[in-house]
Known about the structure:
67 residues, mainly alpha, 81% helix, 0% strand
Amino acid sequence: xxxxxxxxxxxxxxxxxxxxxxxxxxxxxxxxxxxxxxxxxxxxxxxxxxxxxxxxxxxxxxxxxxx
Length: 67
């Protein structure tokens, strides 16, 4: 689990830095961050054997960002 967290944090930082360097829109960066963190949370919930509904989270993110 520790290896997954380290790889996630490193790849997340690289992706954000590339998006900033390529001057992506703030809305696109926000969607990426929200979806990445939701995926991370889902992975943790699966690891700890907790129930979850990812479709509710995805719908909430899409509604909030206006996509």
